[in-house]
Structures are given as structure tokens and as C-alpha cells.
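Many introductory courses stop at the sequence. We go one step further.
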Amino acid sequence: MAAEQFKMTLPASLKAERRGKVAIVTLARPQKRNALDDATILGLETFFTSLPDDIAVALLHGDGEHFSAGLDLGELQERDITQGIAHSSLWHRAFDKIQFGKVPVVCVLHGAVVGGGLELAAATHVRVAERSTYYGLPEGSRGIYVGGGGSVRLPRLIGVARMMDMMLTGRTYSAEDGQAMGLSTYLTEPGEGLAKGLALAERIAGNTALTNFAVTHVLPRIADVDPSSGYAVEALMSSIAQADAEAKSRLADFLQGRANKVTRPE
């Protein structure tokens, strides 16, 4: 399907297009290893809050040899503590629009996924990594600290101890290590990540909007509460989902043999 352009105002550091129900946003600062400046962060916020209602899934990837080498360190110049808090809050707000936005987000990773780039990736829901991918949190060696939500999201993926090690020692991990740790959910050969990401996005777009909402908005919050509260919220969400007209139609198709059954992986 041919790509179509979006009618939204974005900075030059971002490119956006759509393919059917899939919105694609590309980090487009390859000369800077897709380092994230304020204009790019604000652009991501605009993109994820301005998606048309007929978009079902978004896909995020990076142009050039790297996904993102993290914060553009030029952004740290001449900023006092109050301004630093406001800057971090900007990242938090923008990345929340990804994690808890309108649609599920698939992220395709390659090359450097470092610092703020890893924080950005952690805000997405499904991550596909090419074997060229490597991960790092170099903030400790630079006298700074993560500010884009990494303290919240990354320990949930890899644990506090491993994140401590990455920040204290500057240790980097390969794509294979990241797959084993939970930083990615799919691993592909170089050059194959985007096709895999698009295929996954199109499959997710085939779900009902209500189910996708439940998975991206309700499931993470259930995981953060005590079990008894989680069971109650799950029961409510399950009842709401199965009462949806589209769900009833799909269940009828399955019961009457018109829908595919779950099979062994290929």
C-alpha cells in the first residue's frame, strides 16, 4: 500500500506518513545519530496527540545508521535546576502520550539505542531490534542522570540491579543480550526490522480498538496495583470488552468456524 503524508506540522527532525491504518514516524536527524532535542520531543508529542481517528497503530523508527544516541547534550547548556525540572517534565509528558496514547506503538531499533533513545524505546509497546542494535545508559560517566522516564520504565523491563550496573559502569548490551533481558520482543537480521515492525503493526491494527486500549492502558496499571484490586479491574475490563458488538461478532465467527484457530509457531 502506498504511503500517504499526514497533515500536521512537525519539525524537520521528524518525518510522518501513513500506510492504511498504520501511522509511521521517523526520527530524521541521521547526521546527529538521531539525538533528541527539544524540537524533536515536542514534535513527538504533537504527532502522538494529533493522530487521526482512523489510525489504529503507530510505528516509530530511526533514519540512518542508528535509532537514537539519546539526548542532544547541547540541550543541557545554561539550564538551572528549575529549568532542568521543566525540561525533564517535557520528556515525561511527551513519552506518556506514547505509552498511554491513542494507539499501540511498535518501535523498530537498530544501531545505537542509548540514553534518552532507550528511554524513548521503553515508552513503546512492542520493540523489534535488528542485530546491529546496542543499548547503553552513559549518563553516569557524564555526570548526569536519566530524565525521560527511564527510572520508571526501564526497571520494569530489566530490573533495578541491571539498570544500576548500566549507569554505574557504562556497560553496553548487544541486541542478543537485550532480547534475553526484555529490552526487545523480536530480533531480526539487519535491514529486516522495518518490514517485521510493519507486519506486526498491521496485525495489531486488526484487533478491536477496545481490546488494544485494554492491553495498553489497563494491563500496565493492573500490574502496578495489589492483586485483589487487579482482579477487580480485570473483571470489569473483561466484561466491558466482551459486551462490545465487534467482540460478539468475532466470537460468533470463531464458534461457527469462520476464524482461524491458534496454532504452533512456525
